[in-house]
Structures are given as structure tokens and as C-alpha cells.
Amino acid sequence: MKPRRVVNTKKGLKGWQYRFTDPVSGRRVKKTFWNPERRDADRSFAAFVGKRESRSLGIPDGEGWKKPYSELVELFIRGYDFRSEERRVKIQRQLGKNPLGLHTGSDLANKAALSISLKALKDKHGDCWAHRCVQAPLKQMSSWLASVDVFPVDPLSTWKRIKRESAPRERRAFTPAAIYSVFRALRDLDKIAGRNNGLEIVFRALLFTGARPSALCAVTAKSLQGDRIILPDDRGCKRNGLAYLPDGFLPELQRVLGKRRVIGTDGPLLASPKGKRANADNLRADFQRALFLYAVRKVWPCDAGKVDPVEVAYYLHKKRNPDKELAHRPGDDGAPAKNPAKITRRRAKLAAIEELGERLRAKVDLALAGLDMYALRKTHITWARRAGVNPDSVRAQVGHAGRDIEEKHYVDPRLVDAKASAEAVWKALAEVEDEESEHKALRLVVNAEGPDLQSAAPVLAPGEKKAGKGESHKSLRGRKWARQDSNLRPGDYEREEPKSTGPRRTDKTNAAQSLTDTRQEQDQTQKSKTEHGVAPVLAPELQARLAALSPEQLDRLLSKLEDDQGSEA
To answer: 43 is in which domain, residue-wise?
Structure first.
């Protein structure tokens, strides 16, 4: 293994060439070191052979420090066992942004420079964002790279977590009346966006099971076993509960699954509007839009005029989330308007929306303080404990760990009636739904909507426009706002269905007679309303429901009706 003197005349370099057996491959190879002095070349050769021997024995060397940052991220994403595909995509997106400007693996060893850059990001975006989106993913990647011998040691094992200075946000539980209004807002947004798969069923499942959104989004339709959803296995301190479903909700969920034709299959249990697996981040954004619409309707003034609550909710949501604003302004598609009258009306409408939005902004922020999608989990626990359900049942349903030795080791959750927690939450919401249904029926009787009262019209908020036939909403801005981040393709729901014209009449006499009969029916209906003030015939179902009400319930519903009429006036 005597070295041989070599000279590179083209570059003017002098060095020494060694011939040896590579410990990794077992083959005779040549290696040149461009050191003019032999003793320097011998030290370089000895260090090189030592690294090759360590690699042959599986001992980590320092080659990982020289690898590019992008290559390390790709290796981590492909090799790490993430708990869900959603988590993998999220970590890949956070590491790919590289806000600290890292170039090679050796940059991870310079904790002083990392701390200075992280502090600058903390001052700009906040301490929670700096830890969750920057520091935590880097520490996770560094630990895994050291565990697979890409790094000899974990360079970030002693990197202290950035200090949190902001106060933690405290969540509030919904009241039954509030969650009913939120679900109603979700139904309205589903109609506005034309969603084939509504999102209300998703959030009702989250409320009744009390499960974490990420866990419930990861299961398939095959996981629905009887009256229970089999959630994935626990991961570390993240425990999953038994997730029982109330008997009243189970037929509703099975009807939705049957409509999607996924019962007993590997299809997603909770689907996005497009029919694919629901994403927790998109669900969080959709629920926030419903919260804004709920809050706007809650504080809606009597002097709002013709402004639409959906338009105001869109305006306030855009103010709260400026980074999630649509690329173009909804409602202004196509060529710019040239008609001066149309331009004036459009500007006046936008000015009215902005003026009303600023008036309601503080009240809406106060109404939404501490409320988000994860508050459904707190709502489940609060309602169940308030109804007197055994704490062990609630804990087993939602998947919380015990607080002491007895609860942790001497209570078998399989023998606890966890379904009682789900039934209590269902009962609390069902009472509000029944009361609202009775209120709606009484409104129809007093206001005399028409001779046929079997079809109850939805109660609209003051200033809310009733959707016309063949359309879910006239506001293009509201429609695009409702479907944002919902994975919807325009062709799936913006294609209008052909209107049925019915059989064409060819006999002029029959057509004239039909028109005459229609006018006579309208005159008779109007005469009956004028004489009696109410509809002459009530639906049998409505008569039975009103007869079953107690005097106290009638007084309560009448007082609510008078309050609603006073607010509309």
C-alpha cells in the first residue's frame, strides 16, 4: 500500500495515490489525495479508511453533515412512520418551506444561529407558530436521522423549546341552542355550495362521539361495527376512545353511507364534499365559516335592510383570515361591468356590506371567542357530565386517561357503559331540535302561510333572502366562499340540471279550463284568508302536535313568536 506520487499538469496539482482494499465493497480501489506533503496525505488516507471501516461495521460516520437539507427532508419523509397520511403531508409542507434557510445537515448543529433565526420568526408570526411549524418538525427530523445513523448524534436533542409568552387560548363549550344554530348554518352553506356530500353529518358525528377529528377522519366505513366506530390504535399519549353512537343518530349515518354506497367497504366513513376522505384542516376551515354565519345571524340588527347575512359573514371571515382570501374577488367574474348604473349598484352594495360588517365585527368576535371545531370535544364532555353521566363512562367514550392509580389501573373501560355519554349528548340536542320544530309549526299557524301546511318552510333570519326555485343562493360570492378549501370541482355542482317542462298541452280548451280553475282556487284561498285570518284547513299531523302541547309550552312558543315578530318589525 505504498503511495505513488502523481501530478496533474492541467491544474498544476501534486498529490499521492493509494491502492487498497475497500472495507465496504471488498474490492481493490485507488484513491488520490491532493496533498503536496506525504505526511498530510497519509493522515487524510488514514481518516478516509477509518470512515470506510466504520461504515462497514454499521457505525455512523460524519457524511450526513454534508448532505443537502432537501435530501435529508426527502429521506425523513420516506422513512419515518407517520400516524396518518394527513400528518405526513403536513410535516412535509412545514419542512419544505425551510423558513430558517438551512442548506446542509451541518447547519442543524449550529444551535446558536438557529435560535436567533427562530426568535425573529417568533416576533413576526407568534410563539405558537414558531414552535409547532418550525422547531418541532426540525427536532423530530433530527431525532429520526440520528436513530438511523445518518447523523452520529442528534444535534438538536439539547435545543430547548422556545419560550411561550402568549396566554393559551381557552375553549368554550357550545350550548345546545348554539350548536343547533351552527348546524343550521352548515346546512345552509351546503345548499349554497351545492355539495353532494353535506358536512353537517361529519360534525354531528364529531359531537356525539367526542373523538379527535384526526382519528375520526382516518377510519373507513368498515370501522362502523354496530353502534360503535372502531378508532385507530393509540399513539403515545394520544388515546382514542370507544366512540359509541347514539341510537337516534345511527340510522341517519347509515342512510348517508348507503347513499354513498360505502357501507362495509374501505371507503371513508367521513367524506369531503367531493366524496374523498375528509381532511381535518379543511373541516376546521369549513366549521369556521359556519361559525361566522352563526355569529352574524345571532347579532343581526333590525335595520340591516337588504344586505345578506352570508355576504357579511364572508366579509368578516376574510378580515379574520387575510392569507386565505380567494385569488380573485368572488362575484366579479367575467368582463368588467361597463353599465354605469350597474357599477353604482355594485359599489353601493359592497359599501353596505362593509359598513354593516364593521358594525358587527366586535360583536361577532365576542360571540366566537373560544369556539372552534375542537370545542365539540369539550362540548361532549360538558353536556354528558352535566346530565349526570358517570365520569368513567365519559372518559372511556372520549379516550382520556385516568387521573389517579385507581382510574388508570383498576377500571376496565370495556365494562363501562360508554354509550351513556353519547346518549346524553344526543338527548340534549334533540330537546332543542324538538322545541325549534314546535316553534316553526306555531309560526305557520299564526302567520297562515297557506292552505297546505304540511310542508314547513325554513325560518329565515332577518334580512336573509329565500332561495328561488332551481337555485340554492343568488350570491356568487357566498357560493364560492362556502366551497373554498372543500375540494370541489366547479363541474360537479355548477352544472345546472335541465328544468322539466312537463307534458305539453295541445288542446286550447283544456288549457283555458285549467287556467280558469287555477284562478278560482286562488280567489277562494284569498277570500278564506280575508274572512278568517288563518288557513281554513290544517294538516292532520300539525293538529295532533298542537293538541299535545301543554298550556305552558303554548305560552312559551307564543312569547318566542312575538319576540321574533318584534325583531323583524
So the answer is: 4-59
Is 464 a domain residue?
A: no
Q: CA-CA distance, 521 to 514, in Å (whole number)? A: 11
CA angle 546, 549, 555 (to 5 degrees): 100
Q: Is the pLDDT assigned to residue 514 strictly greater than 80?
A: no
Those residues whose C-beta lies under 8 Å from the C-beta of residue 387, and which sit 6 or more positions away, are 424, 427, 428
Question: Does 307 share its domain with 356?
Answer: yes
DSSP conformational letter for 277? B
Pairing outcome for strands 224-225 and 13-21: unpaired
Cell numbers found for residue 413: 373501560
The DSSP H or E segment spanning 32 is strand 28-33
For range 417-438, the mean pLDDT: 87
Cα 278 from chain centre: 8
Look up residue 175 and give its DSSP letter. P
Grid cell 445513523 is found at 149
pLDDT tens, residue by residue, 215-241? 888 888 889 988 999 888 877 677 888
Give the C-alpha separation, 286 to 294, whole Å.
Answer: 13
User: What Å distances lie between residue 124 and 118, 129, 288, 383, 499, CA to CA?
Assistant: 10, 10, 24, 39, 54
Per-residue H/E/C for 466-503: CCCCCCCCCCHHHHHHHHCCCCCCHHHHCCCCCCCCCC
- The residue assigned the cell 385507530 is 232
Whether residue 197 sits in one domain with residue 116: no
Structural domains of the chain, count = 4
What is the phi/psi pair of residue 244, to 5°?
A: -80, 150
Question: Cβ contacts of residue 457 below 8 Å, gap of 6+?
Answer: 444, 449, 466
CATH code of the domain in which 281 resides: 1.10.443
Among 138-142, 415-419, 478-482, the minimum mean pLDDT is found in 478-482
| Crossing angle of helices 69-79 and 136-147, rounded to 10° | 80
Angle at 289 between CA 479 and CA 307, to 5 degrees: 60
The string of pLDDT tens digits covering residues 318-346 is 888 776 554 334 455 567 778 888 888 88
Q: Are 20 and 28 in contact (CB under 8 A)?
A: yes
Domain identity same for 141 and 262: no
